[in-house]
Amino acid sequence: MRRIEIFDTTLRDGEQTAGVNLHLHEKLEIARALEQFGVDVIEAGFPASSPEELRAVQAIAEIVRGASVAALARSHPNDIDQAWEALKKAEQPRIHVFIATSPIHMEHKLRLSPEAVIERAVEGVRRAKRYVSDVEWSAEDATRSDWDFLVRIIAEVIKEGATVINLPDTVGYTQPKEYAAMFRYVLERVPGIEKVKLSAHCHDDLGLAVANSLSAVEAGVVQIEGTINGIGERAGNAALEEITMALKIRQDHYQAETGIKTEHTARVSKLVSKLTGIPVPPNKAVVGANAFAHESGIHQDGVLKNALTYEIISPEMVGLTSNRIVLGKHSGRHAFREKLRELGMAVASEEELDRLFQAFKALTGKKKEITDDDLLALFVDLSAPDQKYELVSLQCAFGFGLIPTTTVALRLPSGEVRTESATGEGSVESVYKAIERAVGVPVTLEDYRIQSTTGGPDALAEVYVKVAYQGLTSRGRGVDNDVVVASAKAYVDALNRIALRLPGVGGEVPVAGAADQGRPAGRSIDSGVVLG
């Protein structure tokens, strides 16, 4: 039985999803959840892209002990030095160095000859090896590369000490048989290939990321890379929950196993969905709301007689249970702490526990039954530590036959509290217009989504928005018993996530964001590369 290692890049490739920008405390929470989930490697970020990113990778490297922590770097000295700076305190550090190898990338993006690319790759691995023993090397756009060129460059980086060779399908172009054939070609022809681990990293542009990843396992790959819920740039990455469950359910076919604790699957999926603001489609495999729902009479009859008739995965395998009501107004602090631990919610300090417990107690005064989903919603709604805009008060007047009117008081980054009023076609529109006036800069609402944590009239409302502001896009999240207040909180949260990246407001605009296996977007950090 082969052991397949799971390399999670939710915090790097996944965060490149349009409009997603996580606070540091949210990244730490996802890292803790991934560690509990049992992943082997957590790719924490791309340190050279911004000082904020470097600090985030440093923080993750300090807390994670049950998995290797990786940092991405292009094959340039500064990138690699920054990666090491971020990983110094990691218990199991890995520097992940990459360079493009396809003709189209070498000619139009890198503007380097094949020989120069080999030289750059060798220099990158050599420099990374000075810092860490575990060096992963990736051939960006491998599936559109010449296979003989791949054999040459892989052989050279292995000589320099690369321990993992990753051949990504960067643009989601390949087909399962082609991908497997490429790995077999490399395995048969590269000297010293037995000394390293082969890795697969697939994107989902043609809907084949999971299928391609599994075909790579059949071809001999021992590491699979992907993200929770399949999030990522463009159509996303391979969904790790689907891959790990396929390997578990069809172990007879793949003759392989992972170290993933599948009973944490649903919880990790929900956490990533809430923190990124990206919903999980109801019909999504393994973690979708309908994954264990049966409407057809024939299906219902079969499942009632024997669940195996239509369910190849039991809900318990992914951490779903029917017992959801656990705490109420009489629950004490100790029981509350134990429940958080049971749900895998790591509280960093007593102060944080106090804030969460008080929020829980306040909720019990408005809601009779507190569910796991309610607790998760409260947990991820803890205020960001670097909040810049703050909703001080909100008053909204609306009703049938009336023009909705809202007055908001908003504390600005300067400390000034500005009060503005506005009308709208609906109550939420009037709230957003009032906030926009208080901010004083045009804000465009690009997406709005609302859902309840549970059923019933006393359910918490969760609102997710996507806004464009000062040339940047961002997603925000708000939770409250009142839909209008939750909508306002989400809007302000989205503004705060952007404000932290704006000069003079609370942070710096990122120099570049890694894209598709690390290809940075925007202007170059390093004059040696022309970025697309």
Give an account of the 3D structure:
- It contains 17 helices and 20 strands.
- The protein has 532 residues and is α/β, with parallel strands linked by helices.
- The chain folds into three domains: 2-276, Aldolase class I (TIM Barrel, Alpha-Beta Barrel), CATH 3.20.20; 325-380; 390-499, Double Stranded RNA Binding Domain (2-Layer Sandwich), CATH 3.30.160.270.
- The strands form six sheets. Strands 2-3-4-5-6-7-8-9 form an eight-stranded parallel beta barrel, surrounded by seven helices. A three-stranded antiparallel sheet has the order 13-14-15. It has a three-stranded antiparallel sheet with strand order 16-17-18.
- It is globular.
- The model is unreliable at 505-532 (pLDDT under 50).
What is the H level of CATH, i.e. the homologous superfamily of the largest domain? Answer: Aldolase class I
Radius of gyration: 24 Å
Give the number of domains: 3
Within the CATH hierarchy, at the fold level, what is the topology of the largest domain?
Answer: TIM Barrel
Summarize the biggest pleated sheet.
8 strands, parallel, barrel
Number of DSSP helices? Answer: 17
Shape call:
globular
Strand content: 15-25%
Which architecture name of the largest domain does CATH use? Alpha-Beta Barrel
How much helix, percentage-wise, in residues? Answer: 25-40%
Distance between the termini: 42 Å
Segments where pLDDT lies below 50 for 5+ residues? 505-532
Strand order of the largest sheet: 2-3-4-5-6-7-8-9
Average pLDDT score: 86
Structural class: alpha/beta
CATH C-level label of the largest domain: Alpha Beta
Number of β-strand runs:
20
